[in-house]
Write a structure and sequence with these properties.
This protein is α+β, with helices and mostly antiparallel strands and 316 residues long. It has four helices and 21 strands.
Length: 316
């Protein structure tokens, strides 16, 4: 019986090896593309390129997130390791921050350096995920599980809030009931709440006067929300631009008054002055000086400021 020479078998082995090598390479490329698509790195790359063409005047007229650096990085909120910090808002009247804890519902007042000033239990809330200051001691709180927003009054003597004592507004059903309304911020210029659904990301407005809501919510076009989820919202009181936070995308995005993307900041370790990646960024707010504040699960606090060089270049 004739046999094939060994020399003629070696190329076949090399061929099979080459096939396996190319297969692994193709799988690696496909996986990398899938990850980039899921994380919207392609969109970030386009926006990064577009940022290079922004004029100094355009940068000065925006928040311009690339100029921000962490000055308080991952400061633990003591005793809140199991409470899940869910959002944060700046109160211009008290010059302090208010944050909600989602797992064990309570409201906490913080200094601008992230020091705990007081804790106030939220009796009757199920899963408070969003909070925003309306002015004059009024706060709006969004409960994702109960699909409702409540408006509460907080003063220096407040020690506890009971949902039975406040007016509740039904947010209605969401496309994904388990990933429903999570974000809220007060748009003082337009006298309305800006609300956000987590997944798929969507924006809504609801008119109000700072004490009560009027009519019903209205959906906004949100074609620029190319993020994996929507965790929190904030509005810059100086420019009126909207900040959109995504925990899954590790991203903070700036939108102008038309809803178009202006700039972004990655929340990965090694960028923006961060030593480590923000684990799960759930809340963002900004004060009248342009200082950024973020909270992350489980109980971490961050403060970002513009670098001195950026302030000089922008004429601030």
């Amino acid at each position: 019986m004739a046999t094939q020479p060994l020399s003629s078998l070696k190329p076949a082995r090399r061929s099979r090896f080459a096939l396996r090598w190319y297969s692994w390479l193709l799988l690696l490329i496909a996986a990398a593309y899938g990850l980039a698509f899921a994380m919207h790195w392609d969109d970030r790359g386009v926006l990064w390129v577009l940022e290079r063409f922004e004029s100094p005047a355009e940068r000065q007229g925006s928040v311009w997130l690339p100029d921000y650096r962490a000055v308080v990085d991952a400061k633990p909120l003591p005793g809140m390791e199991k409470d899940e910090a869910s959002d944060v808002t700046y109160d211009a009247q008290t010059k302090t921050l208010f944050s909600v804890m989602g797992k064990n519902p309570f409201l906490v007042e913080l200094s601008l350096q992230g020091d705990v000033l007081r804790k106030m239990p939220l009796v009757g809330w199920s899963n408070p995920e969003g909070v925003t200051a309306l002015g004059n001691g009024m706060l709006a709180i969004v409960d994702e599980r109960d699909h409702q927003v409540t408006i509460v009054k907080v003063d220096a003597d407040t020690r506890e809030l009971n949902i039975a004592d406040v007016v509740k507004y039904d947010l209605g059903p969401s496309k994904d009931q388990n990933k429903a309304f999570e974000a809220v911020t007060w748009d003082a210029r337009n006298q309305q709440l800006l609300l956000g659904e987590e997944r798929p990301p969507a924006l809504f407005t609801w008119k109000g006067d700072g004490k009560a809501l009027i009519g019903d919510k209205q959906k906004l076009a949100s074609d620029e929300l190319d993020i994996r989820n929507l965790s929190a919202l904030a509005i810059d009181p100086r420019t009126g631009h909207t900040l959109v936070l995504s925990a899954d995308s590790h991203l903070l995005l700036e939108l102008d008054e038309k809803g178009e993307q202006v700039s972004f900041m990655t929340l990965l370790g090694g960028f923006s002055g961060l030593n480590k990646t923000i684990p799960r960024a759930e809340g963002v707010t900004m004060d009248e000086a342009g200082t950024l504040y973020l909270v992350s699960e489980p109980n971490l606090f961050y403060r970002f400021e513009k670098t001195a060089g950026a302030l000089t270049a922008n004429g601030h």
